[in-house]
């Protein structure tokens, strides 16, 4: 272990507060004076002030320049008193403060360099922790993405009648996944707006003018369900193009989204298309839609096959935060405060 590492291990990361530093300086100088006076029979009368340099050095390293100045002042007074009591004169009290000031300056410079080293080492440790956290997050997301891709590929193979249909289905799903991931990167730690998520998922289908998106811009997607919700909307549009309202020139799709103080919902409604009949056992696409809000507390998916058109409602996920758009939680203390102010009036 070199000297720098030893000093970094012994010294605190920050200098002591002002009053603690002053107490440390006075205490060290007083102890040094007592020990020097008690050791006079063994040491003799020479080098009275030498005993005070360790106190000044420790005060400068542990508490900074102000504590070092206090240690120099107290040491000078104590040394002069000891010298006068031993020799009958205070010789050396003028030279000692100058030499002690040089020692304190050097010690404070060393302390400043060590503080810089502490800062750099702390910054490097924080960076290493952040990189490790990012690596774990990337590993987790990549595994989740691969699992979703594997499930989509398997479902597309089961649901498609030929390779072209499977290719089109997978391309649509992968495009929706890519758009959702891009939105997640753009917003960072914020939640993704449902309206933008739906518009990105419906981008390949919305050019015909048969789809209207009427979603509150302040409505946010449930955390952790953004990709699955995008895939579900894309699956609804794909099925509508094959069997539902988008397969007919007169058909239309309306996507609405709103929220109350506590819960949000997104509704997919089809009308003007072929007559809808209740299907048989759940298909792979239906299972994908029903799993859209699996990760959202209280989230549910209700699919209704009305003769006039399919209706799918994604509902029940909680609205994050105290306020979203015009919805506001009314706190009891605010209400009591307003009542009290009315009474004062």
UniProtKB/TrEMBL annotation:
Signal transduction histidine kinase HWE region domain span? 137-217
Q: What reactions does this protein catalyze? A: ATP + protein L-histidine = ADP + protein N-phospho-L-histidine
Q: Which Pfam families match?
A: HWE_HK
- Record's keyword annotation contains Transmembrane: yes
The residue ranges crossing the membrane are: 41-61, 68-86, 92-114
Keywords noted in UniProt: ATP-binding, Kinase, Membrane, Nucleotide-binding, Phosphoprotein, Transferase, Transmembrane, Transmembrane helix
Q: What is its EC number?
A: 2.7.13.3
Q: What's the protein called, per UniProt? A: histidine kinase
Native organism taxonomy: Bacteria, Pseudomonadati, Pseudomonadota, Alphaproteobacteria, Sphingomonadales
């Amino acid at each position: 272990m070199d000297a720098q590492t030893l000093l970094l291990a012994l010294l605190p990361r920050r200098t002591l507060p002002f009053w603690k530093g002053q107490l440390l300086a006075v205490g060290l100088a007083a102890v040094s004076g007592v020990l020097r006076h008690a050791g006079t029979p063994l040491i003799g009368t020479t080098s009275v002030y030498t005993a005070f340099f360790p106190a000044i050095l420790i005060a400068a390293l542990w508490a900074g320049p102000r504590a070092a100045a206090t240690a120099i002042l107290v040491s000078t007074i104590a040394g002069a008193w000891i010298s006068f009591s031993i020799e009958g004169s205070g010789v050396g009290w003028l030279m000692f403060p100058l030499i002690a000031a040089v020692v304190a300056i050097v010690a404070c410079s060393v302390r400043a360099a060590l503080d810089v080293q502490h800062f750099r080492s702390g910054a490097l440790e924080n960076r290493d922790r952040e990189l490790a956290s990012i690596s774990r997050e990337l590993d987790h997301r990549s595994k989740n993405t691969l699992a979703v891709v594997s499930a989509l590929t398997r479902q597309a193979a089961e649901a498609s009648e030929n390779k072209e249909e499977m290719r089109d289905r997978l391309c649509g799903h992968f495009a929706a996944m890519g758009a959702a991931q891009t939105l997640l990167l753009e917003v960072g730690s914020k939640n993704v707006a449902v309206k933008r998520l739906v518009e990105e998922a419906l981008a390949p289908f919305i050019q015909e003018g048969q789809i209207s998106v009427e979603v509150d811009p302040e409505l946010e997607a449930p955390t952790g369900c953004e990709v699955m919700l995008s895939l579900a909307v894309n699956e609804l549009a794909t099925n509508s193009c094959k069997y539902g309202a988008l397969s007919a020139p007169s058909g239309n799709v309306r996507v609405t989204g709103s929220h109350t103080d506590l819960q949000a919902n997104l509704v997919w409604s089809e009308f003007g298309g072929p007559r809808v009949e209740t299907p048989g056992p759940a298909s792979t696409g239906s299972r994908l839609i029903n799993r859209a809000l699996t990760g959202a507390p209280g989230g549910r998916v209700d699919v209704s096959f009305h003769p006039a058109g399919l209706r799918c409602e994604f509902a029940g996920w909680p609205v994050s935060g105290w306020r979203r758009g015009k919805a506001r939680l009314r706190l009891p203390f605010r209400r009591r405060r307003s009542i009290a102010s009315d009474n004062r009036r």
